[in-house]
Amino acid sequence: MRSFCAAVLVLLFATASPVWAQSPPPPALPTATIAGRVLDQSTGLAIAGARVDSIGPSAQSATTDVNGNFSLASLKLGTYHLAIARQGYQSAISDNVTLLTQGENALVTLVLVAQRTGATNLREIGHTSTRASQSLQRSSVMYQSVSAETMQNLGFFRASDYLQTLPQINLAAGTSGGSDTPSPGDDQYLDFRGIGNLETTTLLDGHPIGAGLNRGKNFGYNWESSPTFALRDIVVTYGSGLSGLSPWSALGGVANMQTFDPTPKNQVNVTQGYGTFSKLATTVSATGQLGWHFGYALAYGTQGIDGPYGGNVSFYQPASAYDQAAPVGSKVYNLGIYPYGTGVANRGAMAKFVYSFGDPAHPSHLTASTVWSAYWDDKTGNGDQDFLPYNTALAMGQSLLASYSPGKPTKPPYTVTNLPNCPKGEFLGFSLNGNPYGFGPNGLPDGGPHCVTPQQYAGFAGGWQGAGTTWQAFHQSQYDLKFDTPTRTGQVVVDTYTNNWFQLYDRTWELPWNRASSVASSSSGLGSGYGPNPYWTSPAVATTGTSITDEIYGRQSDFGIGQAFNNYAYNLQTIGTPASTPIVNDMYSYLQYVYHPQEQPYSIYLNAAEVYASVSNSWAFNPRLALVYNLTHNDVFRVAGGSAVTQPYASQVFTPASLVAPGSLPGNINCTGLTIIGTVGNPTLKPERADDVDVSYGHRFGEDSQIQLEAYSENVNAKIFAEPINVNTLPPGFINTAPYQTVVNSQCGGKPGTGELGVNSQRNIGRLLAQGLDVQGRQRVNRNLFFDYGYSIETSVLKSADTLLLQNNPTYILGAQLPGVPAHKWQVSADGQVGRGVDLRLTQYYVGLNNPKNTTAYNYGEFTASAPVPGGRFNVSITNVWNQYFQWNGLIGYGVPLALNNYATKAQYAPYVGAGATESYGIPPRQIYFAYTYSFKSL
Q1: Residue ranges with strand state E in 260-313
Q2: Cβ(457)–Cβ(397) under 8 Å?
Q3: 157 Cβ contact partners less than 8 Å away, ≥ 6 residues apart
Q4: What is the pLDDT of residues 654-683, one digit of tens each?
Q5: Cα-trace Rg, the chain
Q6: Of residues 253, 252, 261, 230, the one with CA closest to residue 151
Q7: Helix 390-403 crosses helix 454-461 at what angle (to 10 degrees)?
Q8: What does the pLDDT look like over 205-222, one tens digit per residue?
């Protein structure tokens, strides 16, 4: 009985326990989905095999299919960022995506930028919008984007060292050829499409910096100072017209240096690099979030290099010798010996803080940032290591002999004011400062000959052409405060900034000293001329501006308007000339309209700005209209047209007159043409205007294998050139010409049409046609190997100019390519992954004839290897892999001769020293650079 009762109790318990122990299941948490496409930012074509990870309340991953589609399902409600990565592309983080309701399906369009310098993605610092109209904005224009991090890993000291490898970008060249020197510390000005460096705009986080400066023949931003450690990337937009909701345009192109932003996850990266010529580089960066309210991005970097002639190396410099003919080892000879330096050092920092407030789903942001850099380089080697070869010096000596005519007979003792007549086959020699051979700075004989043969002259004058101790320093800084807040239909952004750009080029102790003009007195032992011949120049500009934009988002179209104002305060100082401190400003009213119907395969982009510039007191309308049409999911066609103006620089308009003394005119008067009395700005200058049309076609073969063909034609009118102008074209009273006219009339007789006065200045006198074709593509062989390739044809032809310009610049030929603009460039890269994440990349570059190095067509290689190591990544880069075209020195007269126009004289066709003669520059030798980056993530 007891057993039966126990069995019943067990049975009752077994059947009842599910009811007693089991509670109702908790309600399922609401979830939603983020779906969309990943596209190539340049072409708008789909990218297959891209990994998309959610960063937020739920961690999900997906890989895009052959059409670039992905879906992240079962995500908890909340705010997310998306991390996107694909080999061969720069990794990126998206804008935030907020999921608010159960079952919501948020649709996004994400883009990636093709990575042309290897896959070393350590920092997730790229950025992509989630809106198609914004993320694909750049697909409506011709552009290139370069990751700053990969430039660092390659060991590039200046961003421009890499930018000049891109199609349609070269270092600016003058009328006598290029200046692409191998020196690690020489000036660099960029020229887009061969239109000129005046027509190139440089931005820092979308703000103009270093705008409107000039030094010598160069204009614009000096990319000598272009460190990369605070940058996310550099975006280059080609052509005229505008792109995006921004007022900035240029005739040739715009280069925007973008600093990196806070990331959703905390990460710290420390990179240490070491390379050839004692190159050292250290960078530290930190980005992340402290709660949802506060985001930060910090960076600091320093780098330096000794260069080819670092240390305590001293050379005899004939160009700086007081008397090139002085006996070797004498005191006067030794004045031309001094240390030869090529060292470079720079450092900089960036800090950006973002405070988020308001509705967490649609927050407002207040962003404060600052970035600065200081740069110094030793230009004692004259920057480009000028060297006068024997043959060039001999040709110069022969030319001097041919033009030598003995004066009245003289008798010894010979002095600096009583020079001998030279016998047949010899001529009087002079150093570069005008000092006659055979005399020291005190005016007394130093034992050297006065008369020399061309062969002797070549022996004395040939060699290094430095000019004494020289250095230059750069400093740039920017402070920015930006506020953005969402509206019911879009967002409003207010941005204000101020930046400063400063350069000091110093040759206070320039050699040789002033030439001797008298004999030393018995009391002092010194003659006139015993003293320095200083030179320095210091251009600077402080820019301050503000802008406000209002964007409205719609289902099929987006619209935005904006206003901007900028003020430019210049301080241009050069020893021996009047200081120039003009202040100019400009104002912009601009708009953007994007029509992107989801059910249609096309989109239309309109950008326009109405611009007022006080420098020329003129208004201009800068529009750009683009159509992007997806013929199929693998084919895209684009056509765009734009128009824009470039204002003259304030220095070209407001430079005070620097005139010669009226008493110095006799002997330099031109009674049948213009007698030049000095230099001055031209207040009658007008803006240049360009109109261009761009057409492109892109095709995807599969996965991320694709090709894009782009063609452009750009017409530039009223182009500004340096040229002597008649003083009568200047406003009345702009220059007091009466003392000069009196002197000229006394010699020319004052007849009508004779004895006109002129000044060296600028004029709107030319028309230029720039045309080109670019082919860019990627071919993937398999999962771990792909090839990048590019080929460009670039023409920049002078279509019209006045006779005076052609006479003063015999290398300008109507209907012919301008000097320094290579017609052909190509590059091809093989990128492969081996083992566990080891990336190898080999790139070969080719630059055609008429290049800024003044050489024949040349090519060179570049190799990079990147491997994961504990805690980070190790990189090795080798530049000029095959050690091709190695040449440190700039060989004067040894460059490819330039063609001359019909105004060139017979003498100007002489080899080595004619108007078409150029200085040949080479490529630095093979250099190796190692960099190790240690990464702390998710701190």
Answers
A1: 267-275, 279-290, 294-305
A2: yes
A3: 184, 279, 303, 305, 344, 346
A4: 989 999 999 888 888 888 888 999 999 999
A5: 33
A6: 230
A7: 130
A8: 999 999 888 776 778 899
